[in-house]
């Protein structure tokens, strides 16, 4: 709370003659003028008189004998008989307590005797400085501004007052001695929210990037760049004093932070797709080679052309599916002197023609992926008939010239074909696996042959 205690001194200078008809004049202190109706000195309202009394959005508060420049948000209190009463936003012109005065129509003789500034012989009035006697022998104010009897500079404005005058500088300037100099409003107080720029006789406010001046030309408000400029290629989010761009899925911000560029997901890893990754704007897709179909998003699954009926095998041919394709084999693989007895089994019935040949051949087919890790168990051979007092041996009779396979005896009646080298495809291997049976009691031996066709796919899946 701000208590304002105002002491008012009204000085009256009067010179009157010892006779009742002599004229009387009154002089008030600076900031007051004489009210002939009320016959008292009253305050001059500088806020109403001066249009530019206060700068920078400050409010002008009239005060006894002067005025105050205060912020518009200020709450002012005055003391009144021990109470604190808030001053209104637009204060009324204070009424100066009445000062006893002697009107010209009712002159009074001063109590003290002696000369009071009036010549008794000539009856000529003597006026105070700034006044002059008129034809009625009354003291009238001299208008120094109109008569040119002032010392105001060419850039100053002269205002006449009771008994004197005042020199006022243009708006934005202040007196420095007898001259007017620029008032640096930016140094006086914080008129601007962000930045204040002083100019000759005035100033203006500037805002930081992402802000603009409000309607009062002092405050700064945020600029919604997303609505004004729409600077982002995809999505724009406004921030206080700035903005943020965001790209759609599959894109990333470019170096200019507003454009969006495609993300090449295929360059991240070779495991994005099992076979081939195809990048596209904002996305990517996995593709599979011929003979495969996409399972899920990245895995390729072999198409069984034999089951789907998309093969071209003839009626006398058997369709065999392998990884990445199919092959057609004759339904009757037996060649002379062998004859087909059951599915995939051929027997030689003529001992004369089968001299030195295995009595039976069984045809089998299998598929494996290319580049399979080794060693790997891939096929098991097992005797169909078991006899007492017999001993079986197993061997690879043909088709293993490069040594890609090895036949490991598991028991007396079975053996395991082991892959010893990675195979690349597509390729077909035909391996003859022989089982020789030794009859211990009868002292003779027999053999049977399994012709295994191995088809290696073109890929490792």
UniProtKB/TrEMBL annotation:
The keyword Transmembrane helix does not apply. Its main location: secreted. It comes from the Eukaryota. Residues 141-181, 182-221, 222-261, 262-301 form the EGF-like domain. It is found in: Secreted, Extracellular space, Extracellular matrix. Residues 1-17 form the signal peptide. Disulfide bonds join 186-196, 226-236. InterPro entries: cEGF, EGF, EGF-like_Ca-bd_dom, EGF-type_Asp/Asn_hydroxyl_site, EGF_Ca-bd_CS, Fibulin_C, Growth_fac_rcpt_cys_sf, Nephronectin_domain. The keyword Calcium applies. One of its GO terms (molecular function) is calcium ion binding. GO terms for cellular component: extracellular matrix. It holds the Pfam family EGF_CA. Keywords: Calcium, Disulfide bond, EGF-like domain, Extracellular matrix, Glycoprotein, Repeat, Secreted, Signal. One of its GO terms (biological process) is epithelial cell differentiation. Belongs to the fibulin family. PANTHER family: PA14 DOMAIN-CONTAINING PROTEIN, UROMODULIN-LIKE. This is EGF-like domain-containing protein. The lineage of its organism: Eukaryota, Metazoa, Chordata, Craniata, Vertebrata.
């Amino acid at each position: 709370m701000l208590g304002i205690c105002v002491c008012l001194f009204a000085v009256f200078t009067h010179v009157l003659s010892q006779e009742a008809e002599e004229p009387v004049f009154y002089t008030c202190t600076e900031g007051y003028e004489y009210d002939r109706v009320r016959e008292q000195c009253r305050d001059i309202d500088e806020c109403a008189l001066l249009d530019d009394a206060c700068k920078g959005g400050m409010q002008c508060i009239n005060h006894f004998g002067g005025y105050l420049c205060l912020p518009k948000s200020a709450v002012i209190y005055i003391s009144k008989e021990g109470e604190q009463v808030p001053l209104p936003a637009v204060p009324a012109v204070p009424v100066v307590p009445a000062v006893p005065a002697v009107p010209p129509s009712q002159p009074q003789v001063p109590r003290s005797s002696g000369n009071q500034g009036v010549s008794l012989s000539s009856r000529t009035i003597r006026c105070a400085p700034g006044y002059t006697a008129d034809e009625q022998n009354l003291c009238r104010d001299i208008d120094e501004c109109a008569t040119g009897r002032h010392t105001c500079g060419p850039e100053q404005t002269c205002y006449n007052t009771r008994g004197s005058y005042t020199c006022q500088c243009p708006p934005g300037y202040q007196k420095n001695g007898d001259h007017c100099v620029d008032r640096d409003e930016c140094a006086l107080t914080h008129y601007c929210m962000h930045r204040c720029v002083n100019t000759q006789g005035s100033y203006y406010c500037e805002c930081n990037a992402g802000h603009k001046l409000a309607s009062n030309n002092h405050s700064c408000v945020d600029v919604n760049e997303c609505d004004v400029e729409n600077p982002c290629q995809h999505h724009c989010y406004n921030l206080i004093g700035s903005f943020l761009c965001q790209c759609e899925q599959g894109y990333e911000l470019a170096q200019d932070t507003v454009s969006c560029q495609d993300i090449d997901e295929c360059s991240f890893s070779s495991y994005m797709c099992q076979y081939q990754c195809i990048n596209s704007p904002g996305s990517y897709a996995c593709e599979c080679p011929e003979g495969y179909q996409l399972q899920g998003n990245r895995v390729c699954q072999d198409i069984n052309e034999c089951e789907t009926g998309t093969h071209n095998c003839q009626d006398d041919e058997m369709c065999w599916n392998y990884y990445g394709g199919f092959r057609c084999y004759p339904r009757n693989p037996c060649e002379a002197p062998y004859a087909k007895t059951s599915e995939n089994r051929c027997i030689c019935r003529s001992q004369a023609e089968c001299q030195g040949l295995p009595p039976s051949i069984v045809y089998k087919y299998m598929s494996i992926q290319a580049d399979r890790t080794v060693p790997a168990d891939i096929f098991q051979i097992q005797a169909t008939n078991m006899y007492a007092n017999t001993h079986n041996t197993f061997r690879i009779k043909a088709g293993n010239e490069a040594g890609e396979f090895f036949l490991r005896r598991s028991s007396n009646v079975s053996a395991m074909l082991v892959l010893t080298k990675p195979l690349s495809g597509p390729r077909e291997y035909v391996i003859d696996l022989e089982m020789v049976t030794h009859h211990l009691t009868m002292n003779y031996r027999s053999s049977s042959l399994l012709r295994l066709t191995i088809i290696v796919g073109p890929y490792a899946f």
